[in-house]
Amino acid sequence: MLQGVDMQLGLAIDNPKATLAVKRRLACEMVKYWQQIKDSIPELPLSDGWAKKHTLFVKWKYAEAKAAAYYFHGLILDEGNTEKSQEMAISSLQASEEFLKESKRASKAFHSTPPTSRISTPFGTTKHLLDMIPKETLSKLQNNQDLNTQERPSNTGVSQIITPPPPLPDFPLALNPEEYELPQLDPLLKKEANH
């Protein structure tokens, strides 16, 4: 399910006809799926040395999903015409950038944890986020600084909004797993196993 949503988000990002609302919804769904995984991973019996690696992978991808969700949420809030919506947009984009940094740290930790692995070149949704989040955040902060400078000429420096980001919208998950039971073992296979 999660891979399907990730693929849908990647396709939406590449499609100029896909709206920000669609991208935000998919990103918010990814956050919920990763949250479910994060909550259930302590229940898994991972005593074979892979527990830390699995936990770091989930931390990495969860932070990345939150970065995407706050990024698209910030872009939608930026379309608002009120001062409050502009402040919330900046706050969301700043949160997105912080989650992106957290994701990078978790990725490095994941790849350096035994068994070590090589950090791959970012692609798809991740590449888009790495390219766009810092640009959008800087652009929005500069625009806000320009507005504040016009209103209050004595204000110097980049205006930093130090408000917590607004909560992400809570969309219901579009995909839910179906219960599945493995079929009974074929009697012929049982006979072969006994021989």
Automatic annotation (TrEMBL):
Chain segments carrying region Disordered: 147-195
Bias kind Polar residues: ranges: 147-162
InterPro entries, per database record: BRO1_sf, BROX
Protein's name according to its UniProt entry: BRO1 domain-containing protein
Lineage: Eukaryota, Viridiplantae, Streptophyta, Embryophyta, Tracheophyta
